[in-house]
Predict the structure.
Amino acid sequence: QQQVKQSPQSLIVQKGGISIINCAYENTAFDYFPWYQQFPGKGPALLIAIRPDVSEKKEGRFTISFNKSAKQFSLHIMDSQPGDSATYFCAASKRNRDDKIIFGKGTRLHILP
Amino acid sequence: NAGVTQTPKFQVLKTGQSMTLQCAQDMNHNSMYWYRQDPGMGLRLIYYSASEGTTDKGEVPNGYNVSRLNKREFSLRLESAAPSQTSVYFCASSAIRTGTEAFFGQGTRLTVV
């Protein structure tokens, strides 16, 4: 029940296309859903996050869509660029609790120039 | 703004040797984490500390010990290194109580031969 399942494991998208990464969770106590971006040789860094009281959050070309009833959330990257090539992790946690962050297994995204 | 600092960045150990990975954060965060990252396995939690003086096992604690020396520092010790512990290790910290992001260090690339 603590798992966050992420798909696909790898993704290749043409420059200018839309990249979509999906995540699903089981524990309804989770109430904070961040996405992290990791470039080779670096640690992951927060990209965008959403709370379950909204269904969508957009920051520039990056959008999180959240479906509370289905317990799913996804990251959409519009107009994908070669600089977006990285590994992306979804995660879930509970606010206001001394509890750990649960990460998905990651998606390796490659944008073709 | 140093954030999360890990030392060393690279290390090669012989099987059976011991070593301690150091981690320090300057953001006054309560929660600190140690993860290992292996190809295709995502970020697996080794140990977690919700606050100074407390530690909890994560998904893959066997072969590791941790010490939360104070609020700033969280160290990871390998008592008798094994080739299976070859990995990239990341330390992270967060202020979970406010649902904010986790900040990661740059990682330690460890090879056990």
Observations:
- Chain A touches chain B through 29 residues (CB under 8 Å).
- DSSP finds no helices and eleven strands in chain A.
- Chain A has a mean pLDDT of 92.
